[in-house]
Design brief:
The protein contains 22 helices and no strands. The protein is mainly α. It is globular, with a radius of gyration of 20 Å. The model is unreliable at 1-10 and 205-210 (pLDDT under 50).
Length: 408
């Protein structure tokens, strides 16, 4: 595989506008993803769930998003390479916002609610592949790790502010209105996305340049899957992603049920662990850009996050403060790695195949990643213990480190 070396210096303010639009895109997307997690207790009350039903049905409601999300990554992301980024991301944000709106509107019907979450997954599946392609076009090789970390910290920030912003709205008006709020933000964001987003400096001046009419999806996938570097990246990212989603989607319920924390009155407390995720992404990517050794950082991330989950599970938790501190460490260690997977792709995949490559990696990781929240939910339903539910994720982290090491 050859690295894409097309990069033209333009005034820095333009590429930073694009980068921060990608940041806000991911932030709003994660608010949409986390909406069911933040409001799960209220949703369960409305649907009259028992604790076992909330564990299983709630886990499915949160995790079902990842199945169409994975499908979209694999089969819709190649459209980025064929048609370019502007229209694809605009449509993605409109679909995402509509899905969140419909989730609130049909929230009294579990089946319709599930369908809205599937639409959300289909809409958001192209976002990471698209951002990866745009950053590869606008930023040089030695800047990409840091650029990736800036757009990707939209995820932990979106997760962190979701309970802070949505919690009071849920308490004052009901959970549906918190969904409507997120949908409106997304609709508004779609306007600057359509105005500014381009694949690269070249495509800004020649919008049709990056379109590919001769793109062969099957051939591209066969070539990628035959490459050992791509398989290594995919195995590692799948493990990291599964642990992340399994932890993230259960944190609000874990804190409420295990420590008695009232998120309506203390929503900021649930945001603290995601400061660890933000710091982890920044530290991992900056160290990698400056010192190299991305593979070593990824291995450390998998092993240390798995260990921290074990400590969280078996430590005597006497209050919310200790639980939040340990979750902070789980996210800090676990999120050292994600930007590095995207940087490795950008540095090894041709620009005209980068959307497809990122989509395939992200699609596989998120399709498998549905097992994170679902397996936690099943374990909670079987044992009644949130701690034992999270322990499943430690096993996944250790298995991922073994698989990643196999391809080194």
């Amino acid at each position: 595989m050859k690295t894409d070396k097309i990069h033209i210096d333009l005034p820095s303010k333009y590429r930073w506008i694009i980068l921060f639009l990608l940041f806000f895109t991911i932030l709003v997307a994660f608010m949409g993803r986390l909406s069911t997690s933040v409001a799960l207790d209220e949703i369960g009350d409305g649907l009259v769930w028992s604790r076992a039903e909330q564990g299983f049905l709630g886990g499915v409601l949160m995790g079902i998003f990842l199945v169409p999300y994975g499908f979209s990554n694999i089969f819709f992301s190649p459209k980025i390479d064929k048609h370019g980024s502007k229209v694809i991301l605009f449509g993605s944000m409109i679909g995402c916002s509509l899905a969140v709106f419909l989730g609130a509107f049909f929230g009294h019907n579990y089946v319709m609610f599930l369908l809205s979450r599937m639409l959300l997954g289909l809409s958001q599946g192209v976002m990471y592949p698209l951002a990866t392609k745009v950053i590869a076009g606008w930023f040089g090789v030695k800047e990409r790790g840091r650029a990736n970390s800036i757009f990707m910290i939209g995820a932990p920030i979106g997760i962190a502010i979701s309970p802070i912003i949505m919690g009071p709205v849920i308490q004052a008006l009901g959970w549906q209105y918190s969904f409507y709020m997120v949908a409106i933000i997304g609709f508004v964001l779609s306007v600057p996305i359509f105005i500014f987003i381009t694949d690269s400096p070249d495509s800004k001046n020649n919008p049709g340049k990056t379109a590919r009419e001769d793109f062969d999806l099957l051939k591209a996938f066969k070539e990628l899957l035959s490459d050992s570097d791509f398989r290594q990246i995919t195995v590692g990212f799948t493990a990291v992603n599964t642990v992340f989603w399994g932890t993230t989607l259960w944190v609000p319920s874990y804190l409420e049920q295990t420590t008695g924390l009232n998120l309506g009155d203390n929503a900021y407390m649930a945001a603290i662990p995601y400061i660890g995720a933000l710091l982890g992404m920044l530290i991992g990517s900056w160290v990698s850009d400056l010192k190299g050794n991305a593979d070593g950082i990824i291995m450390f991330s998998l092993l240390s996050s798995g260990t921290m989950i074990i400590i969280l599970t078996f430590s005597p938790i006497s209050g919310s403060g200790m639980a939040i501190f340990l979750l902070f460490l789980v996210f800090l260690t676990g999120q050292l790695a994600p930007p590095l997977f995207f940087t490795k792709l950008q540095n090894n995949i041709r620009g005209d195949e980068l959307g497809s490559a990122t989509g395939l990696m992200n699609g596989i990781a998120n399709t498998v990643g549905v097992m994170g929240p679902v397996s936690v939910g099943v374990m909670i339903a079987l044992t009644g213990s949130y701690g034992l539910g999270l322990l499943v994720l430690s096993v996944i982290a250790f298995a991922g480190s073994v698989g990643f090491r196999h391809f080194l």
